[in-house]
């Protein structure tokens, strides 16, 4: 859990405390071309949080006769009751946690709660100004998620709220506000954070040092051949041609295209210069020594050998047999994007009808995906391919984890729209170097998201007009 963006589940359980939450990841931008899916983030796999329902306090049900305004945020008041309610709940949680650690003074808690409410007000105001909305269907989904993670049905959750003095309408209002703030942050922060290969290389150096295992490597290769007994003029001409090819690669031109144009090796025209993943001892020693210090994607050359001049690029590394084992999922989905012409409720109703038809044998999932899905995967029948943990946003991944192969989820709301998800299969797999690098990309993105959110929140707070009145009591 980090303090960047509240996930649905944590936001639901701590809605009245307005606590910092866990990050929302994107269906990752590095997840592959053609998927039509935007991120984050972000990132480590989403797991189920250990959740408890909000605890009622006397401040929730007591009289408001002593209520007064403690601050104004862009003309919107913050009342003493709002602050007092949250402070009381925090104190009750601290009491339930027990332990001998000293508790912060009540006035300090109140000041921190007031500042968090001010930031929330600013975010909710921005949501209204930019016409961000949360449909009742999304709130229903949030409420169901809270119930499920507490081992309750929705009806049991509602009865428990009433029995503990919590108003269901207020609870749902808090859920809606948390979802609104999440969507604001997703748009204002998550969508703008990018991770470059240089960021990943730096992360690798920080975590593991610059040494990278080369037990197995995959190189891309351009050979500019030099004939035996070539004259100095011919050698110079061949070297100049190789340098030209290397300069194009370093300038960002596609390696395969350069290989097809310049390489005299057979794999240059056939495979875009790729030599394939193989043990290092199956490569010429020159290739291994020239590339051993390079990061993934690094280029070296021209390098001279008796055959001519070589340009080499590190495409993949894998320490044989040492990749971590993970459970991968193969899923497919139908995505309906929501907006002024299609509400979340209407999209969910349409997807529920697709689900009913599929389960009744009246329609085929892949066919419906090709016909209706508003996602790049539609051409593949909605197939998202094999994915490692953490590939999808938390709500998508949580729904997927609850399915058995062949099962289809209920319609699910995410930042991208409303999904119908089918789990095709699961498998255990060892990650190769490229897949490990993708997971490192998630970790780097998560760190950058935390930093970006902190900066954005500070700027948003700085732009808000805040007038302090009486201190909260």
Furnish the topology, listing elements before pairings.
Elements: H1 8-13, H2 58-61, E1 69-73, E2 76-79, H3 80-97, H4 106-129, H5 136-149, H6 154-163, H7 168-188, H8 197-208, E3 216-225, H9 232-250, H10 255-262, H11 266-270, E4 274-279, H12 285-291, E5 299-305, E6 308-318, E7 325-336, H13 344-359, H14 365-372, E8 383-387, H15 394-401, E9 412-414, E10 417-430, H16 433-463, E11 466-468
Antiparallel strand pairs: 1-2, 1-11, 3-4, 3-6, 5-6, 7-8, 7-10, 9-10
Descriptive overview:
This protein is an alpha+beta fold and 473 residues long. It has 3 domains: 8-194 and 453-468, Orthogonal Bundle (Triger factor/SurA peptide-binding fold), CATH 1.10.4030; 214-318, Chitinase A, domain 3 (Roll), CATH 3.10.50.40; 325-430, Chitinase A, domain 3 (Roll), CATH 3.10.50.40. Helix content is 45%, strand content 17%. It contains 16 helices and 11 strands. The strands form 3 sheets. A 4-stranded antiparallel sheet has the order 4-3-6-5, sandwiched between helices. A 4-stranded antiparallel sheet has the order 8-7-10-9. A hairpin with a 2-residue loop joins strand 9 and strand 10. Helix 8 packs across helix 16 and helix 9 runs antiparallel to helix 10 (255-262). Mean pLDDT is 78; it is low at 1-53, 55-59, 61-65 and 209-214.
């Amino acid at each position: 859990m980090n303090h960047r963006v509240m996930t649905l589940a944590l936001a639901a359980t701590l809605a009245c405390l307005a606590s910092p939450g866990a990050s929302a990841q994107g269906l990752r931008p590095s997840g592959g071309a053609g998927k039509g899916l935007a991120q984050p983030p972000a990132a480590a796999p989403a797991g189920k949080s250990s959740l408890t329902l909000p605890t009622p306090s006397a401040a929730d049900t007591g009289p408001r006769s002593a209520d007064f305004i403690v601050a104004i945020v862009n003309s919107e008041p913050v009342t003493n009751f709002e602050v007092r309610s949250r402070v009381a709940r925090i104190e009750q949680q601290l009491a339930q946690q027990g332990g001998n650690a000293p508790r912060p003074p009540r006035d300090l808690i109140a000041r921190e709660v007031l500042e968090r409410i001010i930031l929330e007000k600013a975010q909710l105001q921005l949501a209204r100004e930019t016409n961000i909305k949360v449909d009742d269907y999304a709130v229903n989904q949030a409420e169901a998620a809270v119930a499920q993670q507490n081992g309750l049905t929705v009806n049991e959750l509602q009865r428990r709220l009433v029995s503990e003095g919590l108003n269901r309408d207020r609870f749902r209002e808090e859920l809606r506000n948390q979802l609104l703030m999440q969507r604001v942050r997703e748009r204002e922060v998550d969508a703008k954070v990018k991770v470059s290969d240089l960021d990943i290389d730096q992360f690798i150096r920080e975590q593991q040092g610059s040494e990278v295992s080369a037990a197995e490597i995959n190189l891309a290769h351009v050979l500019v051949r030099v004939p035996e007994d070539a004259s100095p003029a011919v050698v110079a001409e061949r070297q100049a041609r190789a340098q030209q090819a290397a300069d194009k690669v370093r300038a960002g031109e596609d390696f395969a295209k350069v290989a097809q144009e310049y390489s005299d090796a057979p794999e240059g025209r056939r495979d875009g210069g790729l030599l394939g993943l193989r043990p290092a001892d199956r490569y010429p020693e020159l290739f291994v020594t020239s590339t051993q210090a390079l990061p993934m994607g690094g280029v070296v050359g021209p390098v001279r050998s008796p055959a001519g001049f070589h340009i080499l690029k590190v495409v993949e590394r894998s320490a044989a047999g040492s990749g971590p084992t993970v459970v991968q999922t193969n899923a497919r989905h139908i995505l309906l994007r929501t907006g002024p012409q299609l509400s979340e409720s209407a999209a969910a109703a349409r997807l529920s009808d697709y689900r009913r038809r599929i389960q009744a044998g009246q329609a085929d999932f892949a066919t419906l995906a090709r016909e209706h899905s508003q996602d790049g995967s539609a051409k593949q029948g909605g197939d998202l391919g094999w994915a490692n943990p953490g590939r999808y946003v938390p709500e998508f991944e949580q729904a997927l984890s609850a399915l058995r192969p062949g099962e289809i989820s209920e319609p699910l709301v995410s930042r991208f729209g409303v999904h119908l998800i089918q789990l095709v299969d699961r498998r255990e797999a060892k990650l190769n170097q490229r897949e490990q690098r993708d997971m490192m990309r998630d970790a780097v993105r998560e760190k950058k998201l935390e930093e970006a959110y902190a900066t954005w929140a500070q700027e948003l707070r700085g732009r808000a007009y805040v007038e302090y009145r009486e201190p909260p009591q």
